[in-house]
Design brief:
The protein is mainly α. The protein is about 80% helix and about 0% strand. It has one domain: Na+/H+ antiporter like fold, CATH 1.20.1530.20. Helix 1 runs antiparallel to helix 11 (about 240-250) and helix 6 (about 95-125) runs antiparallel to helix 7 (about 135-160).
């Protein structure tokens, strides 16, 4: 990766995670105690079902080893910054989505290295030329996700008025940076992406549909309301693809591993629009989203 990208990509991702942190309050983490069923269902979907679905689809679609690892890297990533917005537009429980994003973003420092290391072993084996330093991955995820989230929360806690003034603008900049990361990587690696699109595309599209459906299924299994189901489905379906790109390019130094994250980023936004259309009709116009507590 070029030196400028080594600086700009982590900085952009850190800013995106800061934009997540600035929306959080301590209650977003204590909701696990107050609403254990909903949060537990969401965490099962995000931390267990999603990586398993990525593995199953990589095997089912017979993806090339690097593409299979890349899909599992994506499956290991926490929910994206836009999941709460999509949940809100779909008339889901935005507070639950925010809580799940908060917990999985902090937990990523442990969960991501575990899944990535497992994926490398499953699909590339001992003969892999890709060297993964667990310490480097943990350090990278910690400084790129956990620290910015905590910094954003600190600003919200100690300077709430400043956070309120900055939140809308920071959110727009974070969205623009995410789009820039995806587009820049697409342009740089377009030959690799195009070469693998026929295999990665169907697998990524299947993953979007599968995990969103699983989110609804988990809500039904835990006897949750429709709004909670929408939040869990949105959280599972909208991944932090920028983190997947960062891990592939900056930590593992193998840009090809980022191809599934880029393809998924393009497909998940299309899927999100369709999801909002269907979910709003499923919930109905009279069901207003509950206030955040």
């Amino acid at each position: 990766m070029p030196p400028i990208a080594e600086v700009l990509l982590p900085a952009a991702l850190a800013f995106i995670m800061f934009s997540v942190g600035i929306t959080l309050v301590p209650a977003d983490f204590t909701r696990l105690v107050r609403e254990p069923r909903a949060v537990t269902a969401g965490l099962i979907g995000q931390l267990l079902v999603l990586p398993l679905a990525a593995w199953a689809l990589a095997v089912a679609w017979r993806l090339p080893p690097e593409m299979a690892v890349g899909l599992m890297i994506l499956g290991a990533c926490p929910g994206g910054a836009s999941s709460a917005l999509i949940t809100h537009l779909a008339r889901g429980t935005a507070a639950l989505s925010i809580t799940l994003t908060a917990i999985t973003s902090v937990a990523a420092v442990v969960t991501v290295p575990l899944v990535v290391n497992l994926a490398l072993g499953l699909f590339l084996g001992e003969d892999s030329e890709i060297e993964m330093s667990v310490a480097k991955l943990v350090r990278g995820v910690f400084f790129i996700t956990t620290v910015p989230v905590v910094a954003g929360m600190a600003l919200r806690a100690f300077r709430p008025r400043v956070a309120d003034r900055l939140q809308a603008g920071i959110g727009r900049v974070a969205t623009a940076l995410f789009v820039l990361i995806v587009v820049a990587f697409f342009v740089k690696e377009r030959a690799t992406i195009v070469a693998n699109l026929a295999t990665v595309g169907p697998a990524a599209a299947s993953l979007v549909v599968m995990v969103m459906a699983a989110g609804i299924g988990l809500a039904l299994a835990f006897r949750l309301g429709r709004r909670d189901g929408i939040a869990i489905a949105s959280e599972c379906g909208l991944q932090n693809a920028a983190l997947g790109i960062f891990i592939a390019t900056a930590v593992l130094a193998t840009p090809a591993l980022a191809v599934p994250s880029v393809v998924y980023a393009l497909l998940m936004n299309v899927g999100a629009l369709a999801f909002v259309f269907v979910a709003r009709r499923w919930v109905g116009p009279a069901a207003a989203a509950p206030a955040r507590t």
